[in-house]
Amino acid sequence: MLDSPLEKVPLLESFVRGDDVFRNSRFKLIPYISKVGSWIVKQSVGKKACLVGQALEINYFHGSNYLELDVDIRSSTVARGVVSLVLGYLLKVGTD
């Protein structure tokens, strides 16, 4: 949520008003697994930022006061595997 007009944040304005090619070249996922996270999950997720739009299919929806990103993790076999692994560990943690 912004406290100031979008025009006061030029890079964000370019992202919101730009086309999908521009957005895909800018939107990054920066992974973070806490210190108590599983070693296997940390190794699978990694530490490097990823240009999500280059690896996964993203649909953008926007109106006059919002921008929504729908990231399709099914569009990548690798992403499906990582998410499946992470979810498996989350479910295990929930039962411990």
Automatic annotation (TrEMBL):
Coiled coil: none annotated. Residues 4-93 form the Protein ENHANCED DISEASE RESISTANCE 2 C-terminal domain. This is Protein ENHANCED DISEASE RESISTANCE 2 C-terminal domain-containing protein. It comes from the Eukaryota. It comes from Zostera marina.
